[in-house]
Structure formats: C-alpha cells, structure tokens
Design brief:
alpha+beta; seven-stranded antiparallel β-sheet; globular; single chain; 186 residues
C-alpha cells in the first residue's frame, strides 16, 4: 500500500493525552460493558449508541470519499457461540441490531461485505461480539482495545476530516494501530 496514511479516529480528545500518548480521563467509558457504571459517569445505552453511530458515520464518509463500496473480512475472530448470542440478546448488547446468529457464524476470512452491511458488522466489532479487519485495495479498517478505530488509506481530504470532527470525533493522522505480541510460556 503506497502513499497510505494511518489515521486513529476516536471519541477521545487528543488534548487529554499524557506525554506517552495515554488518555488521562479515567472516567471515560471505553466499551459497551461500561453502560450504567458509576465509575464511568453512568453512560446510558442511548449515549453509547450516539457515539457508536458517529464511528459508523465516520467510516461511511471515508468509504464514500475513497470510492469503496465493499470490504473483505481479514483476520476474523469469533467470540460468539449460540449461547453467547442469546446472552447478548438478553443483556442488550445486540439492542437495535437486526441480526441472527447464523449471520455471525457464517462469517469467514475473505468474505466480501457490501456497504449496506458494513454498519452492522462494525457495530458488532464495537460491541465486542466479533473482531476483524475490513480491507480493500489501499484501505484497511481495524479496531483496538478501548474503542480505538484505525483506518489506513490514501490521504483524507480536509473536508472529510472536518465532517468527522463535526460528528464529535477526533482524527489523528500518522498513528499506527498498536500491535500486541503474545508470549506463551511452556
């Protein structure tokens, strides 16, 4: 991928970062599991979904600008067996999503997702039901821990960056996704 720039796009204001890049507001929620927790100022489901929707709209703006109408699944991780799915339905994790378990279980690497379905699967990633990268030529969308979104693509126009910022999001260009190395002791 030549002339590709990595962008970290989040709800986190970069002005509230320590010198090492860590976010310093410990009361900021970082997952759907933080809904209703006093430690995170009791976010409601509606507040959560408003922010989640801003992430979706940011992705859609970028895909439209880049002329991308579908993405392929890469590095899929499934966290959802049928019992987990039923539990997610009961605990509101899947609230407002029109999805069936067989749609999740049918996912596999290299499967193409059209723009009409990208919203649903990005919401599932943000709700920690599945994880995957979504890729196209000269484009990669991935998510890190704590509600971090990374998009690698050709340079974003100033108009798109402004539109994303008007959603309440922050675009930080030149920041690569964090990578983790797992060491298994024998």
């Amino acid at each position: 991928m030549s002339n590709i720039i990595s962008h970290r796009i989040t709800k986190y204001n970069p002005a509230l970062r320590a010198s090492d890049g860590s976010y310093i507001n410990a009361k900021e929620w970082t997952s759907i599991g933080d809904i209703g927790k006093t430690k995170y100022n009791n976010p409601t489901y509606e507040e959560y979904e408003t922010v989640e929707t801003a992430y979706i709209k940011a992705v859609q703006l970028i895909l439209n600008e880049q002329g991308i109408s579908s993405l392929k699944i890469d590095s899929l991780e499934q966290y959802c067996e049928e019992q987990d799915f039923m539990n997610h339905e009961q605990d509101r994790t899947l609230n407002t999503l029109d999805i069936k378990f067989n749609e999740i279980s049918a996912l596999q690497d290299s499967l193409e997702i059209t723009s009409t379905h990208i919203e649903k699967f990005v919401r599932l990633i943000l709700r920690e039901v599945i994880w995957m990268k979504l890729i196209a030529e000269n484009f990669e969308l991935s998510f890190g821990y704590d509600y971090y979104m990374y998009i690698s693509c050709p340079e974003l126009s100033p108009e798109i960056i402004i539109a994303i910022e008007q959603l309440g999001m922050f675009v930080e260009s030149g920041i690569e996704p964090m990578s983790f190395e797992y060491i298994i002791e024998e």
